[in-house]
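User: I'm preparing a small set of examples for a lab meeting where we compare how different chains pack in three dimensions. I only have the primary sequence for this one, and I'd like the structure in token form so I can line it up with the others. Please keep the answer compact; I'll paste it straight into my notes.
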Amino acid sequence: RAQEAGPVAAWTFNDNIQGLVRDVARGTHHLTASGLLQLVDAPGAKAAVFDGATTFLRARNHPDLMMSDRVTVDVWLMVDTTQPPEPGCVVDKGGECYRIQLDGAAMFGLKGGGQRLDLSGGKLEPGRWHRVTGVFDRPQARLYLDGEPVGERQWDNEIGAGGDLFIGAKS
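Assistant: Understood. Below is the structure token output for the 171-residue chain.
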């Protein structure tokens, strides 16, 4: 886990250069694209479009990305449907050790030590931008949708180390 204060990694899609999305927090954990990354206009920025099958972004595994007792995962997203054929991870730290997932509702999940936590809540509206935030400060886990709390539970376990971090279909 990183010792410095502030974000370990953050990405915007405003400066995508040939399949590379730069880490704007520390300049260390750049994302590489698999498949053709399509960018579209979003409020105040650009957004990546994922096809749910072949396009994804990957940050290679690194000790900074291995969280054990605290993590915040924060994403802005828009969905086409609230009835996907199956739940899909938007962000996944290799093996679902920490993740944001969608299944008609926002979901935040953690895994480690043979234990699993799943928080779900709120209603996603197709065609509307939503902010989904999962916060874990051991032992408290919380899920927010558009800044409002929609799920909370105690989970007194360490988050597993996992592998690479994925955004999109590979997750």
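A couple of notes for your slides: DSSP finds no helices and 14 strands in the chain. The first strand starts at residue 20 and ends at 21.

User: Perfect, thanks.
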